[in-house]
Each structure stands twice: as structure tokens, then as C-alpha cells.
Design a protein that fits this description.
By secondary structure, this protein is mostly beta strands. A hairpin with a 7-residue loop joins strand 1 and strand 2. 15% of the residues lie in helices and 39% in strands. The chain has two helices and eleven strands. The chain has one domain: Immunoglobulin-like, CATH 2.60.40.
Length: 186
């Protein structure tokens, strides 16, 4: 082997050496736990009266193609005045086959989720979250809803994703889904 060939091999080795190690750098690219927001295409809220004589009210919001596509379909929540209901919310991801029940995931991760229920006007509905996580903070998969006199308004339901920051308030975290239903109490 000539001196030229030896120097050429040495130069090639020196050039290849940094390339071999550049892909192994430690830039804190370690995998992190999956704390991404949930994909939710369908929200169904079922209210069952606690007294005899009333009928169950069900309302659904559905946005299969997501934000920016077609407008979501939104039902109207029809309730009776001066009635107490037990509410249960169901969340689905209909982009998956089979359809994914996101409610189960939220139930397993109660310490990371909080539902916010806001009726407008505030006097139309009184909503209380009745389920709690291991830290005794409210979750909101199950609720008690009390209607007042007849009227119309809206009900906004927001699911906050709060991994590591849940404190019982709506402030920390990100929004997984937010829907607003028209409400008629008659």
C-alpha cells in the first residue's frame, strides 16, 4: 500500500468517524410518556331523571372529519323544568376501526382529566360533578343536573387534559374537546 493510499484511507476514516457518532448523540430525545390530547369525534351526554315520570334526554355532538372540515352535527338538549337528572358522558373516536371508546381511557386516567360544565344563563341548570379521582378531585364523567324554570340557553362541556397539573380548576392543561349544546327546558 502506498503512502497516498494510507493517507486516503486515514482521511476517509476520519471523515466517517464523526458521521458514525452524530446519529448517536444524546439530545434528550428519549421517548416520553404519551401525554397527547385525546382524539374525540363524538360526545354523547345522557341525562336520566331521578324521579318517576320523566324521560331520558340524550344529546350528541359529532365531528367525524375534525376541525376545519365539515361543520359538526349538534343536537339540542331537551329537559323538563324543576327536575333532577343523573348525567353520564360518552366520548368516542370514530376515526378508528373499530370505534375507540375514549371514555374508558379518561376513566383510567382520572387524575389527568376534568370536565367543565357551564350553562348559560347560569340559572338554567345547576350541574355538579359527582365522580372523583384518587386524589378526591372531581372528574365529571358522572354528574347531577338540576333544572329550574322553563327557559332556553346553552350548555358548554369542556374536557381538560391536565397531566401532572390537575388541581380541581379549569386553568391548567389543554382542551381535549369543547362542545356547546343548545338547551331547552320546557
Amino acid at each position: 500500500m502506498t503512502i497516498f493510499q494510507s493517507r486516503f484511507r486515514l482521511a476517509a476514516l476520519l471523515l466517517a468517524f464523526p458521521l458514525a457518532f452524530s446519529s448517536c448523540s444524546d439530545d434528550n430525545d428519549d421517548p416520553k410518556p404519551d401525554d397527547d390530547n385525546e382524539q374525540i369525534t363524538t360526545v354523547t351526554y345522557v341525562l336520566t331523571p331521578t324521579t318517576a315520570g320523566g324521560s331520558t334526554a340524550t344529546v350528541t355532538w359529532r365531528d367525524i372529519d375534525g376541525t376545519g372540515g365539515n361543520a359538526p352535527t349538534i343536537g339540542t338538549l331537551n329537559l323538563r323544568p324543576n327536575t333532577t337528572y343523573t348525567g353520564a358522558i360518552t366520548l368516542l373516536d370514530e376515526t378508528k376501526t373499530p370505534v375507540a371508546n375514549v371514555t374508558d381511557e379518561v376513566a383510567k386516567e382520572k387524575e389527568e382529566h376534568l370536565f367543565i360544565y357551564a350553562g348559560t344563563p347560569a340559572s338554567l341548570l345547576n350541574i355538579t360533578r359527582t365522580d372523583r379521582d384518587a386524589k378526591n378531585l372531581e372528574v365529571g364523567l358522572v354528574t347531577r343536573v338540576v333544572t329550574t324554570a322553563a327557559g332556553t340557553g346553552t350548555l358548554k362541556i369542556t374536557l381538560r387534559h391536565q397531566p401532572g397539573s390537575k388541581d380541581g380548576s379549569a386553568t391548567p392543561g389543554d382542551t381535549d374537546v369543547e362542545v356547546t349544546f343548545p338547551v331547552t327546558v320546557q
